[in-house]
Amino acid sequence: MTPDFLRLSDRIGTAGQPQEDQFAAIGQVGYEVVVNLRPLTDALPEERSLVEKEGMTYVSLPVVWEAPTFADVEQFFAVMKANDGRRVFVHCARNMRVSAFLCLYCVIEEKFAPEQAAIDLHRIWTPNPTWQALMERVLERA
């Protein structure tokens, strides 16, 4: 499907940046919402229109790779809660931002054991010190 695709559940799929022609396939397999965590300066210029053309909802939550914030995580949680019950496809450049945020979401909101949630995270990557520090701060506040 797309680079670094990972199906977390029947409702949630994640990946790296889809190519323009892959948004049709994302819609055809039943995703209703596309959440992009890349800054708009890095995203596909026409991504919103490509997603909306396929009848899906587009949400942009730009997260700066070098400086993710607690507010970024809170916004992501709000988007996921607002789309509860809908099929959501979340992407960034290489599925690294996404996997970190979804790991946190699964622990805090879905009540997964941290070790269980980390399995999918580690399929994609091991967070670098910046991201590890953010994840620890978020979990401490939970």
Explained architecture:
The chain is α/β, with parallel strands linked by helices and 142 residues long. 45% of the residues lie in helices and 13% in strands. A five-stranded mixed β-sheet has the order 1-2-5-3-4, with helices on both faces. Strand 1 (6-7) and strand 2 form a beta hairpin. Helix 4 runs antiparallel to helix 5 and helix 4 packs parallel to helix 6. It is globular, with a radius of gyration of 14 Å.
Q: What would you say about this model in short?
A:
With 142 residues, the chain is an alpha/beta fold. The chain contains 6 helices and 5 strands, in the order E-E-H-E-H-E-H-E-H-H-H.
Shape designation: globular
Largest sheet: 5 strands, mixed
Radius of gyration: 14 Å
**Helical percent range?**
40-55%
Order of neighbouring strands in the sheet with most strands: 1-2-5-3-4
β-strand number: 5
- Indicate the low-confidence ranges by residue numbers: none
Quickly count the helices.
6
Q: N-to-C terminal Cα separation, in Å?
A: 34 Å
SSE pattern: EEHEHEHEHHH
Would you tell me the overall average pLDDT? 95
Beta-strand content estimate: 5-15%
User: What is the SS-derived class?
Assistant: alpha/beta
Give structural attributes.
alpha/beta, five-stranded mixed β-sheet, globular, 6 helices, 142 residues
SSE map:
Elements: E1 6-7, E2 12-15, H1 22-28, E3 33-36, H2 47-53, E4 57-60, H3 70-82, E5 88-91, H4 96-108, H5 114-124, H6 129-141
Parallel strand pairs: 2-5, 3-4, 3-5
Antiparallel strand pairs: 1-2
Helix pairs in contact: 4-5, 4-6
